[in-house]
From TrEMBL:
Gene Ontology molecular function terms on file: AMP kinase activity; ATP binding
EC number(s) per entry: 2.7.4.3
Gene (name only): adk
Organism: candidate division CPR3 bacterium
Superkingdom of the source species: Bacteria
Protein's name in the database: Adenylate kinase
Length: 225
């Protein structure tokens, strides 16, 4: 059973393969929060086949971060669809100190401005193992990780063909890890210094990760209210 919406926004972070998409879906349902998956928004933009989408694809397929101003516009456009008095769950955004400032600027135009970030920590070897074996439904976008992904050819939800994403190759994965350390880690340290970061062991099973997150959010709620 879901509960009432939180009095602050949630930001779910972690390197690709950390399970942030899975946890974001679970948290969105549990807290009845609108779910803004920035990675999915970007992938939809790529499919539009516009000059902007071609530019985005070049960055995306090589594991590089998109220019901040492009991401900010995509996020602003999406948030205009959500009532200003609702708290929102952001997945995979922001990824840098500059993007964090951009998000804070956007949130300052809304009734709810408080936020709390959750980061799912996993080892580098786990990143390679999960991403090289990851498969995505070509129709509905559902993601499957090994060992399950290695046993399936079609999506269990809609029957769509499972494919490997262009950026799930060793070279792009290595670049993402390098970028994450250089760009995202400083932002995480900043959030931690402000008391706005919850750190979670992402090596656990899905249900254990979710349980840890819920328990820590309950503590934050008591402190904020």
């Amino acid at each position: 059973m879901g509960k009432k919406v939180l009095s602050f926004h949630l930001i779910v972070l972690g390197i690709q393969g950390s399970g942030k998409g899975t946890q974001s879906e679970l948290l969105s349902k549990h807290f009845k929060m609108p779910y803004v998956g920035v990675g999915e928004l970007i992938r939809k933009k790529i499919e539009e086949k516009t000059p902007l989408s071609n530019k985005i694809r070049t960055f995306y397929d090589t594991g590089q971060l998109l220019p901040d101003e492009v991401v900010k516009e995509i996020v602003k456009e999406e948030l205009e669809k959500i009532p200003k008095d609702q708290s929102i769950l952001f997945e995979g955004y922001p990824r840098s100190l500059k993007q964090l400032k951009d998000l804070e600027d956007i949130l300052n135009t809304r009734k709810i401005q408080k936020k709390m970030a959750i980061v799912l920590d996993i080892k580098e070897e786990t990143v390679y193992k999960r991403l090289e074996g990851r498969r995505v439904c070509s129709v509905c976008g559902k993601i499957y990780y090994p060992p399950e992904s290695l046993k399936l050819q079609n999506c269990k939800e809609c029957g769509g063909r499972l494919i490997q994403r262009a950026d799930d190759n060793p070279a792009a994965i290595k670049e993402r890890i390098k970028t994450y350390k250089k760009v995202t880690n400083p932002m995480l340290l900043y959030l931690k210094s402000k008391g706005e970061l919850i750190q979670i062991n992402g090596e656990q099973r899905i249900e254990e990760v979710f349980s840890d997150i819920i328990n820590k959010i309950k503590l934050v709620e008591r402190e904020k209210n």
